[in-house]
Amino acid sequence: MQEDLTTTDMAEFSPVVELNVGGVFYTTALSTLTREPDSLLGHMFSGKTNPPARDAKGKYFLDRDGVLFRYVLDFLRNQAIVLPESFREKERLKQEALYFRLPAMAEAVESYTDASVPARALLLATSRWATAGVSHLAEMVLQMLNSGSSRAFWSVEELLSAAMSSERL
């Protein structure tokens, strides 16, 4: 009788996973790594493929850019890209997204500009504004998020313009 390989292999992973990515250490939830089931990380940490090798300290080792990997984890956690102002490694980050088989992340990196604001991050900011009496913009952002729009980014100018004219984006 053959066992279900995925169930067997999943049992070997702890709910908290320690990673060594190019010499940079990360600790994250197994559910974060498997959030995108068709991604390389989803395959590695669900038992669909062999897990990565472990380093001398027992952490799973990925021979990738350890500094850029933080953005991969952020994308898996939030389904949005937030980059520092004047980020200069977009092409390298896009290559990391493609390597990890995260096409939505690659597309988000490609279309990201300094003026782009991830809607979910904006929602967090507008919740603070709402307590100060600027609830119209917060309500509008919630409507946009719940509208099922596939658009991931709006510029600050688009949001403020829509808020002033009460349009939906």
Automatic annotation (TrEMBL):
InterPro entries per UniProt: SKP1/BTB/POZ_sf, T1-type_BTB
GO biological process terms held by the UniProt record: protein homooligomerization
Domain spans labelled Potassium channel tetramerisation-type BTB: 17-104
Domain of life: Eukaryota
PANTHER family per UniProt: GH08630P, POTASSIUM CHANNEL TETRAMERIZATION DOMAIN-CONTAINING
Protein name according to UniProt: Potassium channel tetramerisation-type BTB domain-containing protein
Species this chain originates from: Diploptera punctata (Pacific beetle cockroach)
Taxonomic placement: Eukaryota, Metazoa, Ecdysozoa, Arthropoda, Hexapoda
